[in-house]
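Notes from the 1:1 (GR / supervisor)

We went over the backlog. Supervisor wanted to see one worked example end to end before approving the batch request, so GR pasted a single chain during the call. The sequence is below; no edits were made to it. Supervisor asked that the structure be written out right there so they could see what the output format looks like.
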Amino acid sequence: MKNILKKYKLVFILIFLLLLYTFVCAISYAKVTSENIADSVFRLHVIANSDSKEDQDLKYKVRDSLLDYMNSITSNCTSKEEVIEIAKDHSKNFEEIAINTMAENGYAYPVKIEIGQFDFPTKIYGDISFPSGTYDALKVELGKAKGQNWWCVMFPPLCFIDISSGVVPDESKQYLKDNIGEEEYALISNDDNPEFKFKFKLLELFADNKLLSAKK
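Structure output shown during the call:
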């Protein structure tokens, strides 16, 4: 009887160790993959003053003005780092554009511009999906910033496409491929492979439960 109990105990320990090893490997995989994806993009985040129709409409007008300006100063950029540096150098211009756009529409809300790391939920851009996680971004807060927010990817330039078409231009996809590995690109490109769908859900699970630490 004692030998049987010892065997069961040994089996239980082995199973526990196997599960622990699998969990640690999964977290390690999710952390590296999430960082590789986040390191390849720079996002834009615009938060409206409130959820009123007027404030939401104003948010989109400010967004359009900011995107027009951003596109004009970064159209020749080939790296995320270059885009971020340009955004930092022109942060005051972003603030002025937002203020002027609101003034043209009869509003005088204060504007807060930040460039840093922020948490984002899962977002789909045409046939590309980005998992939830911590990303570098330009955040624009309008007024009290209590309304629904809008976000996109400024680099690669996914902000400048018609998302309703459901297709991301090949040039933008190539930027992604050039900056992340084949595994990471397969994960975000809405691949029908069940393995990649499972891994994408794995990234979301760990990110949503704060098991992935923020980038340094």
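Supervisor's comment: The CA atoms of residues 62 and 98 lie 6 Å apart.
Batch request approved.
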